[in-house]
Amino acid sequence: xxxxxxxxxxxxxxxxxxxxxxxxxxxxxxxxxxxxxxxxxxxxxxxxxxxxxxxxxxxxxxxxxxxxxxxxxxxxxxxxxxxxxxxxxxxxxxxxxxxxxxxxxxxxxxxxxxxxxxxxxxxxxxxxxxxxxxxxxxxxxxxxxxxxxxxxxxxxxxxxxxxxxxxxxxxxxxxxxxxxxxxxxxxxxxxxxxxxxxxxxxxxxxxxxxxxxxxxxxxxxxxxxxxxxxxxxxxxxxxxxxxxxxxxxxxxxxxxxxxxxxxxxxxxxxxxxxxxxxxxxxxxxxxxxxxxxxxxxxxxxxxxxxxxxxxxxxxxxxxxxxxxxxxxxxxxxxxxxxxxxxxxxxxxxxxxxxxxxxxxxxxxxxxxxxxxxxxxxxxxxxxxxxxxxxxxxxxxxxxxxxxxxxxxxxxxxxxxxxxxxxxxxxxxxxxxxxxxxxxxxxxxxxxxxxxxxxxxxxxxxxxxxxxxxxxxxxxxxxxxxxxxxxxxxxxxxxxxxxxxxxxxxxxxxxxxxxxxxxxxxxxxxxxxxxxxxxxxxxxxxxxxxxxxxxxxxxxxxxxxxxxxxxxxxxxxxxxxxxxxxxxxxxxxxxxxxxxxxxxxxxxxxxxxxxxxxxxxxxxxxxxxxxxxxxxxxxxxxxxxxxxxxxxxxxxxxxxxxxxxxxxxxxxxxxxxxxxxxxxxxxxxxxxxxxxxxxxxxxxxxxxxxxxxxxxxxxxxxxxxxxxxxxxxxxxxxxxxxxxxxxxxxxxxxxxxxxxxxxxxxxxxxxxxxxxxxxxxxxxxxxxxxxxxxxxxxxxxxxxxxxxxxxx
Amino acid sequence: xxxxxxxxxxxxxxxxxxxxxxxxxxxxxxxxxxxxxxxxxxxxxxxxxxxxxxxxxxxxxxxxxxxxxxxxxxxxxxxxxxxxxxxxxxxxxxxxxxxxxxxxxxxxxxxxxxxxxxxxxxxxxxxxxxxxxxxxxxxxxxxxxxxxxxxxxxxxxxxxxxxxxxxxxxxxxxxxxxxxxxxxxxxxxxxxxxxxxxxxxxxxxxxxxxxxxxxxxxxxxxxxxxxxxxxxxxxxxxxxxxxxxxxxxxxxxxxxxxxxxxxxxxxxxxxxxxxxxxxxxxxxxxxxxxxxxxxxxxxxxxxxxxxxxxxxxxxxxxxxxxxxxxxxxxxxxxxxxxxxxxxxxxxxxxxxxxxxxxxxxxxxxxxxxxxxxxxxxxxxxxxxxxxxxxxxxxxxxxxxxxxxxxxxxxxxxxxxxxxxxxxxxxxxxxxxxxxxxxxxxxxxxxxxxxxxxxxxxxxxxxxxxxxxxxxxxxxxxxxxxxxxxxxxxxxxxxxxxxxxxxxxxxxxxxxxxxxxxxxxxxxxxxxxxxxxxxxxxxxxxxxxxxxxxxxxxxxxxxxxxxxxxxxxxxxxxxxxxxxxxxxxxxxxxxxxxxxxxxxxxxxxxxxxxxxxxxxxxxxxxxxxxxxxxxxxxxxxxxxxxxxxxxxxxxxxxxxxxxxxxxxxxxxxxxxxxxxxxxxxxxxxxxxxxxxxxxxxxxxxxxxxxxxxxxxxxxxxxxxxxxxxxxxxxxxxxxxxxxxxxxxxxxxxxxxxxxxxxxxxxxxxxxxxxxxxxxxxxxxxxxxxxxxxxxxxxxxxxxxxxxxxxxxxxxxxxxxxxxxxxxxxxxxxxxxxxxxxxxxxxxxxxxxxxxxxxxxxxxxxxxxxxxxxxxxxxxxxxx
Lengths: 807, 878
Description:
The structure holds two protein chains of two kinds. Chain A has a domain of 191 residues. Chain A starts with a helix and ends in a 9-residue tail after the last helix. Chain A contains 39 helices and no strands. In chain A, helix 9 crosses helix 10. The N and C termini of chain B lie far apart (126 Å). Among the domains of chain B are: 74 residues; 93 residues; 82 residues, no CATH class; 113 residues, Sandwich (Immunoglobulin-like); 111 residues, TATA-Binding Protein. Chain B contains 36 helices and 14 strands. By secondary structure, chain B is of the alpha+beta class. At the A-B interface, helix 32, helix 34, helix 37, helix 38 and helix 39 of A face helix 29, helix 30, helix 31, helix 32 and helix 33 of B. Chain A: InterPro entries: AP5Z1, AP5Z1_ARM, ARM-like, TPR_AP5Z1_C, TPR_AP5Z1_N.
């Protein structure tokens, strides 16, 4: 994003030590105290601003320095550039306790706006917002001769309105509305005069012409943002600024705001004749100011839409057109919400707009507000907006997934409008593969959005496919990267890791043999089928080093957590079984991104346990698959956390208490499998090639075997033999190379404990298969339920020497 | 298989030497010994190869011939080979002799029944005597070397079977006088003499003529094994060292018998003969000789140690370490009999000065220090085995021997040992002008600890520090003035560098309880006082598992609780549980149960969680002795408690319900007026935690229907309990008294029974409102009720005094729910339903300054006086 030079400057700024900064500040203080407002000061302040803004929040300036900055900001003779810098630094330092900027003393409106910006950044601790708002209003009301003052103050006003909606009183609001109408509608159509250049300026300055449209034609109607000229007059500037604050103002003074009375009045005036005819003809009549403002705003938006149709001469203008379109649609949306009569007037033009825009990939961002419009008003307007969504969800992500801005807006659009989707939720749910493309390409900014979005997307029907898709997300990133690389040169290349070249991958991407798999991965909609992508994992291995893939791999565990917490809400018994199977099956077929498997395994293992808690009988039902899983010992050590969980779950839930179908044969079968596994794990010689088997696998295997033996008592001798073997093995020096000293000691201790437990079968059975209430907090406290207390009483009775309780 | 070539043998021997036991276990192992023996006779192999084969058989006899029979066979074969050698000079004779000897000695085949032994011994003796064995067995040039070798072999055999050469003493003594190798003969004679003396005196026999009998035992038939059998192989010190082990027994037996003057003279002559020629021997051999003779003569009556005097003159000035050692051994053996105090002082000075010599190599240096530390004194004081510095070693002498941090570790430790001994003595000495050794010791230890605490310092420094601490703890165990600073210093060291925890654990395992117990307490305090996230958490846990016990439970548990949040991986969790286990074994219960339960629910790893749960269940369910058994085999199994049958006061107490003072208080809450029945609201309050509380109520006088008991699962002091609702079913509308009994279980498990103070149900508690009439119909409804009373009911008028609150206040306070018609502030109509089916109607009108006249009607005569009392009491009631 930054050039290398800027990057290194930022680094320097961030690494400045406090000492150094202090020295630098004292130098600045000296300069400011001397009221030296020359280039030196300018340069120093620029540096200070860079330092302060590069290291957010961690730097504090001394009070003297802050005071001097304030004083400089207040100097009448201070050049504008310095003032702007001072204000920017003060804004960065906010909230600051030692601020003593006086609002009233400043004369110049330019200065006023700077002071106001600093004050507004303080977080309204002393009602600054209200004070600033009132001050600006006074300036507005005073009808000062002409506008430079207002031009600087209007943005401050816009900010005040957003920050503290209740600041303005009724009449003030009315006044502002009126003036907004003026500015919006009646800006002059002549270009502004150039600055008078002083004594030597040539009097032959060109006579200013009329403003033009973006395509160069002379403006035919009133002035708007999209009108262009060489120089703007002040009222033209105000026009632009008024449009900027228009939406916020409308929302502020909407029907639910302080302007409720107005609408009531109007509806009484017009009765319920909200016909199209009356609505269109109301333009000319004299309306209350707020109504009038809406009317003007509507006209303004329509003119903008019309203007955006023109072909812009300059690229900057064409960008501006798009931005203005977005804003116009949003304003229209607000208008229609506040006053449904606008709905019918805007529908046709918006439909036309949609028809025009949908074919143009450059103005794709307009589609989102349009879709939002149709989503919120479609029902009222009886328009079938299905086509809009279809286009939005199928085409856009496929083509535009690499645009970070669009991705963010798109996902936010989905998230914010979830409540409106009620009827179209299935469209949204089915197009999750498309949404995941955004996620795969832009995972860091979108992760939190998706965490919020996933609960709505998850559905019992697509849960399995979605889990697969989540696990394959880094793979999808790699494929998207390949897709972009192999595409013919686009006009604007998205960012990718140029250092990474993987010609073999590109070839594979074009190889017809794998086309099916690639197509499956890039599918736009949920297909209901799942395919094994293991061949792709091997094929795309070289892409694993790509930064985007690594980022995506880091995000997946978080997303998995969110997915599972959502899916457990909707899952029934069979789905839980399927999910558990999928967990086990996918644990060894993951995309080989560095660190990916470890992160995913830890989530999968905890989620496997969560599934078991939800449905303990899962262990009995999936017995065959679990045995198969445990049988495939290769790579077991790399999946240690999952294996630990599975083995523990077997020990915990393979019991008649949880499922009546659990038989002795089943227990014996599991015992044999686990016994074999334990031997395999402990007997393998340590070698550099194989990862070491972590000791917790050994301990959990021992514990589970003991549990099983306590339930099927014929197995006790075998288990005892096994445990004593393990104990001696942990003593032997051969193991010490495999396990650390602590690990070996843990194994030894565990084996000893379990051995002694097995010598007391009755205790073992009870202790190793505890009832579920054991973990309830009151278990050992409450005399009504507490088995422990009862037992303790009995044992006291039985022991003579324990000296019974005091009478 | 034919004889192997030279190269084949070289290869084979290389493989064997690389790993003898592995080679012998392999396929070729069996044949190696046989091949070796047969190939010794082969013509094809050079002598050089054969010598190397023999060297192998000397180095690994136990591997090659593992049992006696194999050894016997091998020795026989070797002897045959020797005999068959052509009569010309050969390099094989001496190795063959040695190999045969080794085979017999190492294989344990030496004995009267062994043919090889019976062949070898005469052969060796003959060779030693230098006599010609006939057939040109020994070429003249080889005579002397063979003689020496034979002596060596004999010495080897004699030391294996002491007493073997008892019969040949005379012969050997005779040989010593003649020409021949002096050293082997001297050593052989000394050894044989020593063994014979010891064995003979043990059986109580004299030397007899053994020393003078110069006849070779071979001449007179079979070898004489009698002495050997008496000795029974018990006399086998292998190296010259302080003969402490045998001392008690040896001394007793040696003094048991006195030699005849004749024997004594012969013996003395023999010893003098040996000593006289001793200067010809190498220093090591001399030392050996002196040691043997010293032991032989020690305590032997009539043999004054003055015999050694002439040698001492030579020895006192020696620079040879071995000779010095031998001399010290003589000193240990004879003490003042041989050494004067001047000698002793001289020796000590020599030792201390030599120990300070800067140019000495470290081993020599250590040797001198060792000699100083275990200096044999002329008059040993104190009990045997007690360590003390030499008496004559004054502080002046010691000054040069004090340790400093710059010494190398071993020297430092040795000097520290000396310093400790000095400190132990210091108590009785008055303070000198020099800094006291104890002070010096403390400074030194502090320095050592400081070095050990250096971050990233080498482990050797830490090890040295702990070795020094251990040494001090051992030497000065009884001195709190030294131990206290040591303990605190160690605690500080741990605080500075927790990663030394394994060293601490090791130290705690090694030292006596005098240091261990206080050190444990201090370390526990150090660990427990620093809770929370720490890099050193794993070390803390390891440490705590060692030092945690029943004391200071709450601090320990708090630490563990805080640590639990940071134990994110399995290893740390296991460390945590190890501490819990230590606490379990120490018999902690209370808070530990809670902690374990929390761990069983919260730990991340399923295995850790499971393990915590296992401990939790064990602790919650098992009694202490059984818990001990379950946790590990080291605790003794408890005796079965069989007191079930025993008459036991507590036994009865626990099964009976006991009368107890009331631990519960009941108070009446505010009146509740909803529902069809009057309900009392009771507020229970407990003074101690009680469980399964059952409250039983009895109404006096059958006024109400019997009341249900109220159950409360648990009451704790300080925790607000939910109010209990007690519905009343009056049979007649009258106040009553309720007797209350409480039955509950205490937290100790006893069931108790208590009488609570009675509860009074007031008349007003029975009031219920009539259903609310529809709006506006209130007056009509009231009039209807008013009228319905009269035919069988009663009417009255009562003066109801008004308190300061006035009529309005009175009504709103007491009668609010029952008001049907209200015209404040003047007139109120009140209708009260009295269960089961009575009513009470009041009209309050026209209040005067101090009261209001109330007209009342009821359909139940019995209610009238109660109502009157109630109304009159209203003003007083707050």
